[in-house]
Fold this protein.
Amino acid sequence: MSQALDEIKIGGLGASRKRVEDNRFIRGKGNYTDDITLPGMLHMEILRSPLAHARIKSIDASKAWDIPGVHLVLTGEMMATRNLAWMPTLSYDTQAVLATDKVRFQGQEVACVIADDPYIAKDACEAIEVDYEPLPPIVNPDQAVAEGAPVIRDDKEGQRDNVIYDWEVGDAAGTDRAFAQADVISRLKLHYPRSHPSPIECCGSIADFNRATSKLTVYMTTQAPHIIRAAVALVAELPEHMIRIISPDIGGGFGNKVPVYPGYVCSILASILLERPVKWIEDKTGNLISTGFARDVYLDGEMALRRDGKILAIRMHTDADHGAFFSDAQPSKFKIGLMHSAFAAYDIPVAHLTARGTYTNKAPGGVAYRCSFRVTEAMFFQERMVQAAADDLGMDQAEFRRMNFVQDDQFPHRTPFGFLTDSGQYGKCLEVGLKAVGYEDFRRQQEEARKRGRLLGLGISTMTEPLGAGNSREYDILGIKMFDSAELKVHMTGKAIVRTGARGQGQGHETTWAQIVAHELGIPAEDIVVEEGDTDTAPFGMGTYASRSTPVAGAAVAMVSRKIRAKARKLAAHLLEVSEEDVEWELGRFYIRSAPDRGVTIQECAMAAYSNMPDGMEPGLENTAYYDPPNLTWPFAVYIVTVEVDPETGVWDVLNMVAVDDCGIRINPMIVEGQIMGGLTEAYAMSSMQFITFDADGNCVGSNYMDYLLPTAWETPGFELHSEVVTPCPHHPIGAKGIGECAAVGGPAAFVNAVIDALSGMGVRNIDMPLLPDRVWEAITYRRDVSGAPPVRSDD
Ligand code: CDP
């Protein structure tokens, strides 16, 4: 009879174990960067540019220096003497740390003051006099490429215009041939507006340089501590082994905390110069106007169609507005991230994508805000194009998708842009969603309601997201290959510690990594502690963004557990006095195949590793695994929304939202649900209320929480989640696929499609997000598309 442990009871795979990190968070005992106070610590504040584009004629900091309590004023000129006025970005560009020649966006860092407290530092910033000569600002790609446009990056040798890259992927000639044979060509132009990840905790750092040991310790809000360590070593020319980056609890990252920000660099230099710890904590406005924006991409998309509904080809042109510096992290081969993951779930023979990136006088943007490098834009464009195409053909939305999906027996499937998807049940997910929302009934109600002047709409969105970059053959950032790592130390009493190169920001890694070890070794999850975020202790890793933790670091946790189990098997054979081949494993225990009652637990093996190992065996039970995934993981989801639009006001309400997510094996179903709920909430916010844009002078409009709204439970509609479709990832050691971002990626198109569907018959093809009531009202009243592209109109 098996004596295997009950996996759910020990908190293994599939257990909805309560999040262990919440023990401290709900008690208010989280330890965030701003909670840390070091002896002798000084405070840094940043002076930011009020103008979007201006030449700096002079900076006079003398009045700031005179203020009692001020220890240091840093300007670009001073940074330049140390070769630190500019720094390399994660995308092979350069970025000003403190402006020297020009300011290139509103909110750009111009000077820093380090003082006894943040208030003195702030006052001293205001005492710095900067003489600006205004230059014409550029706030969108059209202006950037217009004849005679001022060159924003005139600091760069050989840069004669505002184009960062022109990139293409796919088969141009094949796509042209397919378009020539199309019965119908469907075209859609739209803008995915700028949005801001807006974590509750802003960015910040405390740099602590110790002259006696030459060690630099930096506590900071980074999602990728090891990458920051490498960047600091290269930028500040400090020896890497003397740099320790500690990323304590993070109050949300969402991609905002991946880039290297000038504030980090200035606090480090200030600490080195002053030999005292220097703390910089960004304020909300600083975060909203100057740090990692997302999206801001324009699409001109075309679909070649056969009359019966078959998609023959896709042609896409995207224009990405990167702001003044190309500073977001992208896998270096792919200039526009993974935009070419568009249409991966559809069986399309041929496609071609051209992408252009431009500089504008806006804060650097393009970060992967809760998405895998531009997948959010890709899926939004895809599902908006799909809806428009079905409408152009007069076809049912669900039927059009159903007939064009990659079918279950077509895997592995090569997408038109070259990815290899390996598993999924797209049709089944759609059927589950349609049934849950009562599709046929709703369509009937919609018809009836329309006769009485009520506008009901239904929007479908599907998404498949390439999660878990690498593999290292194709994915690198600045040449550093994308893989990840885990270290597992099992102590002699059978308790264990896992460390990974990932860094969670609220996703629950401390809970779920322990569940993977419990699944592999039978050590109860409560006996395993998880630690991340300290480069002196954690093995090297690329960090947490792009939902890569489970696909890569989570896989490394499984693989290192297997290494431990292999050694424990040898210890078990030794304890049971049989050969290793005679030993069998069941959860938590090795036993003799021919005498199953005679066995040893994993805990007994752990004790033996320190007290009774066989001759010649290296003592201890510890190991490290580096995991280079063979492919990305490809979760799939269907989101369906029903809405009612008020024709008098343009206000729209969500009636129902159904989500069907297939992320393979769920480690912790409760955490997965939380991830989906959060993602849907962000999708709702982006589509309905989050407004941050720029006026013609380059002023950031919506740079406060009165305009850029974070939805509370009050505004957020209810969501109905479905988990019945499970397609394990064929190459992930435990069959898991990423989930953290799926709903934020696929959700926005469902809301927009629903509102556009409600207006069907009015000739409105597109309303750009956010679908604010006035925009919807304008579309209804004037029966026209409504663009949200900046510069913002004065009446918005
Ligand atoms: O990289 P990030 O942690 O943001 O995203 P993720 O890997 O998709 O994981 C988000 C959270 O969901 C983590 O705590 C995962 O362990 C958990 N998860 C899960 O329980 N089952 C999955 N199949 C995927 C993720």
Q: What stands out?
A: The longest strand covers residues 184-195.
